[in-house]
UniProtKB/TrEMBL annotation:
<feature type="domain" description="UBA">
    <location>
        <begin position="294"/>
        <end position="334"/>
    </location>
</feature>
<feature type="transmembrane region" description="Helical">
    <location>
        <begin position="94"/>
        <end position="114"/>
    </location>
</feature>
<dbReference type="Pfam" id="PF00627">
    <property type="entry name" value="UBA"/>
</dbReference>
<keyword id="KW-1133">Transmembrane helix</keyword>
<dbReference type="InterPro" id="IPR009060">
    <property type="entry name" value="UBA-like_sf"/>
</dbReference>
<keyword id="KW-0472">Membrane</keyword>
<feature type="compositionally biased region" description="Low complexity">
    <location>
        <begin position="279"/>
        <end position="294"/>
    </location>
</feature>
<dbReference type="InterPro" id="IPR035952">
    <property type="entry name" value="Rhomboid-like_sf"/>
</dbReference>
<dbReference type="InterPro" id="IPR015940">
    <property type="entry name" value="UBA"/>
</dbReference>
<feature type="transmembrane region" description="Helical">
    <location>
        <begin position="20"/>
        <end position="39"/>
    </location>
</feature>
<dbReference type="GO" id="GO:0016020">
    <property type="term" value="C:membrane"/>
</dbReference>
<feature type="region of interest" description="Disordered">
    <location>
        <begin position="265"/>
        <end position="296"/>
    </location>
</feature>
<protein>
    <recommendedName>
        <fullName>UBA domain-containing protein</fullName>
    </recommendedName>
</protein>
<dbReference type="InterPro" id="IPR041928">
    <property type="entry name" value="UBA_UBAC2"/>
</dbReference>
<dbReference type="GO" id="GO:0004252">
    <property type="term" value="F:serine-type endopeptidase activity"/>
</dbReference>
<feature type="transmembrane region" description="Helical">
    <location>
        <begin position="126"/>
        <end position="144"/>
    </location>
</feature>
<keyword id="KW-0812">Transmembrane</keyword>
Amino acid sequence: MATLVYNSLGFYKIPITKTLLSSLMLSCGALHVPIVANYRHLMVCSVNDILFRHQLWRLMVSKMVFADMKDMVCGCLLLYYLRVFERRFGSNKYSSYLLACFTISSLLEVSLVWALNALNVTDIEYLTPGPFNIIFALFVNYYFDVPALHSTPFLGIPINAKSLTYLLGLQAMISTNSSIVCAVSGLVTGFICRWNVFHVCDIIKVPKCVASVVSKVLGGLLCSGPPAESPIQMGATFEIQRQQQIELAEQQMLFSRFAEMNPRNDSNVFPNRRQNDLSAQSSSASANSEASGSTNAEHVTTLVEMGFSRQNVVRALQRSNNDMNLATNILLSES
């Protein structure tokens, strides 16, 4: 008998990522329209445009437009894979984090390109278009915060669910000399923002008044509702079944967390307007996710060593019935 579960979370509670993906795809498609293609030269930026002509707007425009379809597909896939951080941070904090990453990585990228050109190490004419500097900055958090739940050795190399993301990032990195500089700048920025060096994330952030205005004006348009329930048969393979369980646990914890949030908490730029429905769904999801029994001491030790608090680890293992994979996913959803 089929059990009523939710489909993949999709764009639920990630309005910033949804906005970025939509604008990037539309702008890249528009550049291939003959009339708009005549203005393509305005969508690229060189170091001379910034340092000598003081055209900072070129930098901002070039970082919001992909030059070709290949980069657009690769970049959008990476942004979609990294969307988990918007759910963890909340839209307000996530938008501020992206702003800090963009500002610092852009400064580093311009400085590196100017220095390399001055030393005749390379001759980079234009900066890498598209928000790859932000994407590579998020890779630092992706490496440290998202564990590889399952790996399979292939020719002596461990392959896991994160491998595809890394391969896409590597492909984007080694395309050109400018993309290598962009990747290095983004990775350095990722370390700076992750550990909030010199309190840069406290200084560079989206003002609350701006977040409030954007939420009121565009919140209803950009917010996506929770995924609809639908009867889904159990997957035919173990991997599919495991993925179904992880997705179910993720949204169960998401609904539970939503119900426990303080009504005054403004961690999201675009608060969802279906709080009553979500509260009812979270109660049902939490009831289904509770499991009895003692926790496995070895699992507790392993998860605590990963940086989670012992209290949260014990509760997650009890909810997942000592399933290590589901408990890890629950802890990531709560953090």
